[in-house]
Amino acid sequence: SVVYTHPEIASVGLSEQQALEAGHDIRTGRYPFSANGRARCMNDTEGFVKIIAENKTDRLLGAHIIATHAGDLLQELVTTMAFRGNVEDIALTIHAHPTLSESVKEAALDARGEAVHM
Description:
Strand content: 25-35%
Distance between the termini: 28 Å
Structural class: alpha+beta
Low-confidence stretches: none
Number of helices: 5
Radius of gyration: 13 Å
Order of helices and strands: EEHEHEEHHH
Number of strands: 5
Largest sheet: 5 strands, antiparallel
Shape: globular
Helix content: 25-40%
């Protein structure tokens, strides 16, 4: 779902609370737009990307973005979930620099304990 406000709000899959209530053993990754180079250049640093993953399998269970262009950034996460992908799939994907989409990769890295730019 996408809410077209400023900043935009976009989400797919389970929230952290829903995942816990469903009995999943989870881990999360988060990356603030204030740390993203492109967002800083655009002077639009409000928001973050949050990823919820199954701890044992690394499977992507949900993702939430509150930030500029959140609706555009969500597509990578929707595709990953549609193919029952995992967080490593996102973390290993090359993201152009400087782009807002790097925030998705960084959140995935954070969920795996491998954050680079935090």
